[in-house]
Amino acid sequence: MHARTPEQAAFAAAIDAFCRAKTGTRAQRDALTRNGTEAHSPPLYAQMAELGWLGVGIPLEYGGSGGGMTDICLFAERTSYGLAPVGGYVTTAVAAGPYMKFGTREQREKVLGGIIRGRVEAISISEPGAGSDAAAITCRAARTSGGFVINGQKTWCSNAHLADHLLLVARTSNSGSRHEGLTMFCVPAGTPGMEIRGIPTLGGKEVNDVYFTDCFLPESTVVGAVDQAWPQLMAGLNSERLILAASMLGRGRRAFDDAVAYVKERKQFGKPVGSFQALKHRIADLAMELDCCELLLYRVAAMADEAPERMLPREASMAKLKATETAKRVALEGMQMMGGYGYALEYDMESHLRATVISTVYGGTSEIQRDIIGKTLGL
Amino acid sequence: MHARTPEQAAFAAAIDAFCRAKTGTRAQRDALTRNGTEAHSPPLYAQMAELGWLGVGIPLEYGGSGGGMTDICLFAERTSYGLAPVGGYVTTAVAAGPYMKFGTREQREKVLGGIIRGRVEAISISEPGAGSDAAAITCRAARTSGGFVINGQKTWCSNAHLADHLLLVARTSNSGSRHEGLTMFCVPAGTPGMEIRGIPTLGGKEVNDVYFTDCFLPESTVVGAVDQAWPQLMAGLNSERLILAASMLGRGRRAFDDAVAYVKERKQFGKPVGSFQALKHRIADLAMELDCCELLLYRVAAMADEAPERMLPREASMAKLKATETAKRVALEGMQMMGGYGYALEYDMESHLRATVISTVYGGTSEIQRDIIGKTLGL
Amino acid sequence: MTAARSRWSSDELEQVRNLAASYFTKEVLPNVPKHVAQGYPDKALYRRAGELGLLCMSIPEAYGGGGGTFAHEAVLIEEQVRAGDPSMGFAVHCTIVAHYVLAYASEAQKKRWLPKLASGEWVGAIAMTEPGTGSDLQAISTRAVRDGDFYRVSGSKTFISNGRVCDFLIIAARTGDAKGHAGISLLCAEVSDTTPGFERGRILDKLGGKGQDTTELFFDDLKIPATNVLGGEEGQGFIQLMQQLPQERLSTALIAMASLERAVDLTVEYTKQRHAFGKPLFALQNTRFELAECATLRRVCRSFIDDCIESHLKGGLDVTTAAMAKYWVTDQACIVADRCLQLFGGYGYMKEYPIAHLFADTRVLRILAGANEVMKELVARSL
Amino acid sequence: MTAARSRWSSDELEQVRNLAASYFTKEVLPNVPKHVAQGYPDKALYRRAGELGLLCMSIPEAYGGGGGTFAHEAVLIEEQVRAGDPSMGFAVHCTIVAHYVLAYASEAQKKRWLPKLASGEWVGAIAMTEPGTGSDLQAISTRAVRDGDFYRVSGSKTFISNGRVCDFLIIAARTGDAKGHAGISLLCAEVSDTTPGFERGRILDKLGGKGQDTTELFFDDLKIPATNVLGGEEGQGFIQLMQQLPQERLSTALIAMASLERAVDLTVEYTKQRHAFGKPLFALQNTRFELAECATLRRVCRSFIDDCIESHLKGGLDVTTAAMAKYWVTDQACIVADRCLQLFGGYGYMKEYPIAHLFADTRVLRILAGANEVMKELVARSL
């Protein structure tokens, strides 16, 4: 329902056509993901890189195609809708932000250039004792000659097993408030002292524990200013929330379309089940809520593009909260509408459910988003 | 959250200022409404007419200020937010549509001219046996020399006791399908054979039963074509649904702001109750949903303005469904947040509840809107 | 579908039920328009209920009561809701006020006060809430200052049920210097329109519960004999409140339960008889599913409530379960009332249809007797 | 908070509970990873359950059963869920298959089949659903054509629980020419991997219920003795299904009930121990209210379910109430599982946390044994 510009419409149409051709069938997707066990297909991603799509949102001077949050969201939404196994994109796009804003010229060229060529980036913030409460980070970066020595455990690190670098947030100082004394580092894959282990989840291979044991990082790996990770992180929250929202909007729309196609086809008691009022009404509500998500997301993305430096805590939190909760609701109801077929792995609905049910948790849980919105209202 | 043009922003600001000045306090509103028993204040409405506001959406050639659905919605939203007792406006604005599209020059000048000067119009469609199912109308318009004789009962007629004319839909023919054979008439107030009786409701004096007994209407009272009321009605549905949605968006926002003001002020256990997470989270959800309503409403209004002849059954139904259901939810939750004070008549929350709880019924119940949306999805 | 007889019922209780139903429909309902107009019920109807033996049925016969159990009160509550009377303040009078007296007053006080409450000569009320309190009882600021053999009470109360018609009033007030809960006592006052230092404020106009008097009350050096402190010593008020709350909350849940049942009954009947699109509304799948869901809630709530009533009859209803009942059943009753009103369409909004009143009357149940948010906190503490 | 003992329980049932708990935790759980990997449970564990007397406890001793009641089956169901075993297909084996035999088979057939089911020598299954049916049983197209003393059965079934391991199968098929419900019969087949005309299809991979075999089955001229028509005559299948459904639905509701209880227990424990922002998650008001609401649902559902179990033990569980229980408790269990998972945050998604499995396993309960939408239609018919 959101009004796209002709360029945006063309971009979306190109992505949709690509996905129909490359990832339109379960067999195609299974071939790209080792039967659904992997979330990211480097070959497919490389094709997108060749089409120049991965430079969306990256400045022209680093080889990107420019564009803003709206275009990034469009890409995330449509690839998610198309079930393209490019799960590495979201974190990569989020990771690009701090490098663009705070990285050295050298870091930017290396990281952003890689992103455009189809390389994946990761971010490592969460710890077993520091999830939504990032300020509780204890992973330690101790100063040493020429750099820092890292010790500690990180968890919930998406892409770590695929990424060129981890954007690590570690504690460089214990003085001051909990939010002070954190620093960002760009840790290249394969750095000695860093070990990556996958975590089995309902969603397959996506996230990792990362262990640092006396891992040395030279001074040049610091991203931005020492002890300044917190404000640097805050500056990236708009984009994280919007990209996650876009991805879930796409997934929610896909779950919706899959469910509608099924209920039109499936007959019970001599009629398509979608003709029963109980299902029709539920579907009408879902259609309405998805349109609301879309309008909200792209309105906030437009606000972000109008004033890129502006923090939009309320608006971005709303977009994330609404899109993820709605996508989960669509998948839950879609599963019910599909009966046993929704539960069987040969249909996609159960994967929509697994994908959406965790979306209300990562990138700040729904509860955290509500806390933030409430705070902006003066509560 | 919807982006207004500078003109729209100025219009909204003027209405808000007017309402703060004239209807900002309960005492002011009580004085204008006989202590809340009346929904429409002709003197206040006359002041709005003098400001030229009531011509919004009426073509320049009939003395209006032009503008489109977006402007009409803005007016309905902001007056509703301001609790201005101008309950006659919504139906009047909806009634204007058929006259503009189908009326004779003479009817248009009379009715539209009156509207701009602050006169109220009414629409009479529903019957005891024909509510959401308007095609079941039985009120009979029998041809006679020089016109028609009307017999039958209408109900749920807003404004009838205040209006210059009733836009009556009556059955002129029984042949053909149920949707055929209906005709619109412009019935002047005081026409012999027409009797208006108020219906006591939870909302006070707003609606009426209307009885027609051998009521003669000359040929010149036919609006549009004989037997063509159904398509003429259909052409007006966008505007009816959008204006109702706008009015409920305003009311919902008011209920929200009233509740937030209360929970910031009210202390329990030594803290403002709004600081409790349970309330804060609910308020965050409501803020988000209201923003969604606003974006949805004004997006659909913009679509209507871009192509005024286009039927937007899905979109307009979504706007109406979302805004009314959300407004009701806000009022219900607002009442809970205000505890006993929400239930007591001296606060406005109980009037917000009474106003919003019926909004999911009139202008097509929520169930009907869902049926329509489902139908447009091919279900 | 008439509800099956509850497990805790008996033939005798069903007779009481018939008597109560007849009283409400034949004697009270014709007077409801008058009650609504004046804002309070006729006290003659209290006396009539007393004559019929419908008041204080769970108070021992020795004090003029019926010698029955909470089951008798439950029957009265259910029948008032089923009849659709919003005006008589029996729940407060019988299940709350009389039971404070029974539990904490001296033998002489019981003999003096309870027969008058049981006969309906007096109407009872309890004044807890103040403009600045609500669920936060520690914030009570009404003060009772000892002056020889008396207390002098000053302060204001609001949202007091039966405030306009009451003759006997239990007042929660601060005595002595203790802070927080420890400083609260309950004092019993015999009051009339001419009692010095006692003033009945406005009858508050409410969304629902029309015809039942909810008022402000003001005390300005109201003199109360020192012996009228419930329990005989100061500072017991908070504990006394806590002990009585399960029954109060269960009563509130039961009002909600009966309202929910009535909403479903009314709506099944209406949707079967009302036609749209050429068939009964009940034939539409949306209507069928809505009512199936509401009827299921009704059945589930009833299982739970009957369970709670049985526990309470055995003396085993704990604070947590009572809080669950209060919060959950009142929430469901409001949800069901809202869904049922929607099925009535425009008629649900018309005052001639009882569902409109039911919707408005039910709403307050989530607020009174401890807001549902407070109930959830109580439940959480038990986990 | 440990659930109080249900009214219908007894010391003997609590002993069975302990035995079942020990069986699941000590004998089954260590094998679950193997079951998940192979897609079906080890049949040796059925025989072990039979040895312990845990199978067919509500079948008379004369047929090798335990001579108990549905309460015994209820205990087994509850303990399987509490232990967190997703793999053993006891609910179908004991509460469904054995009871069809008990209710409709001839004395000789009962003597032949039931002891094998009770000992765990055989595993039972029932084949109703087809790719084109679902809740619409009239659409069954599997045909059983009479051929002398035999039927020859052809067709395909799907979503058949225990389909991979079963030795005894009840097949719903069309016999004769009658249309609609009247043409459906239930036929019993003794099957093995080498039975001619019988083929086990794929084990369907599902979101949850991992390790429990849900399969396709194919029949191509499968020969079944004509005497194996349940009830002895054709066309009784639909009525037989209808009669057995209340118990099946109650069992499903009970699985949901136990799941809901487990979800709340796990989450209370987790949120008390997990810290965020310097305090336990449980100290946050959102957590407290979420869990208070979930705990209330648990209490309410339990009242209702115990009520249903008591009715069923007395033979009085009607179709409507069973439909209410199936629809409502499974809905609530899914809602509670979702809310609890959310409180676990990211950990709720990790396979090492049981809440992730519970969320996935519970979801199917709203679908099987008659989709909840069908239950609502049944309830609506009673209004």
TrEMBL record, chains A, B:
Protein's UniProt keywords contain Nucleotide-binding: no
Q: What's the superkingdom here?
A: Bacteria
What cofactor(s) does the depicted protein rely on? FAD
| A Pfam family annotated for this UniProt entry | Acyl-CoA_dh_N
**InterPro entries for the chain:** Acyl-CoA_Oxase/DH_mid-dom (IPR006091), Acyl-CoA_Oxase/DH_mid-dom_sf (IPR046373), AcylCo_DH-like_C (IPR036250), AcylCo_DH/oxidase_C (IPR009075), AcylCoA_DH/ox_N (IPR013786), AcylCoA_DH/ox_N_sf (IPR037069), AcylCoA_DH/oxidase_NM_dom_sf (IPR009100)
Where in the numbering of this chain does the Acyl-CoA dehydrogenase/oxidase N-terminal domain appear?
5-118
Q: Residues in domain Acyl-CoA oxidase/dehydrogenase middle?
A: 122-215
One molecular function GO term is:
flavin adenine dinucleotide binding
Q: Print the keywords alphabetically.
A: FAD, Flavoprotein, Oxidoreductase
Q: Where is the Acyl-CoA dehydrogenase/oxidase C-terminal domain?
A: 230-377
Gene3D superfamilies named in the record: Acyl-CoA dehydrogenase/oxidase, N-terminal domain, Butyryl-CoA Dehydrogenase, subunit A, domain 2, Butyryl-CoA Dehydrogenase, subunit A, domain 3
For this protein, the record's CDD domains field holds: ACAD
Q: Which family does it belong to?
A: Belongs to the acyl-CoA dehydrogenase family.
Name the UniProt record assigns to this protein: Acyl-CoA/acyl-ACP dehydrogenase
TrEMBL record, chains C, D:
Needed co-factor(s): FAD
Give the record's GO CC terms.
cytoplasm
Mind telling me which Gene3D superfamilies this protein's record contains? Acyl-CoA dehydrogenase/oxidase, N-terminal domain (1.10.540.10), Butyryl-CoA Dehydrogenase, subunit A, domain 2 (2.40.110.10), Butyryl-CoA Dehydrogenase, subunit A, domain 3 (1.20.140.10)
Q: Which InterPro entries match?
A: Acyl-CoA_dehydrogenase, Acyl-CoA_Oxase/DH_mid-dom, Acyl-CoA_Oxase/DH_mid-dom_sf, AcylCo_DH-like_C, AcylCo_DH/oxidase_C, AcylCoA_DH/ox_N, AcylCoA_DH/ox_N_sf, AcylCoA_DH/oxidase_NM_dom_sf
The Acyl-CoA oxidase/dehydrogenase middle domain, residue ranges: 125-221
GO MF, one term, reads:
flavin adenine dinucleotide binding
Residue ranges annotated for the Acyl-CoA dehydrogenase/oxidase N-terminal domain, each copy included: 10-121
Q: Does the keyword DNA-binding apply?
A: no
Lipoprotein recorded as keyword: no
The record's keywords, sorted A to Z, are: FAD, Flavoprotein, Oxidoreductase
Instruction: Please state which protein family the record places this protein in.
Output: Belongs to the acyl-CoA dehydrogenase family.
Q: What is this protein called?
A: Acyl-[acyl-carrier-protein] dehydrogenase MbtN
User: What lineage is this protein's organism placed in?
Assistant: Bacteria, Pseudomonadati, Myxococcota, Myxococcia, Myxococcales
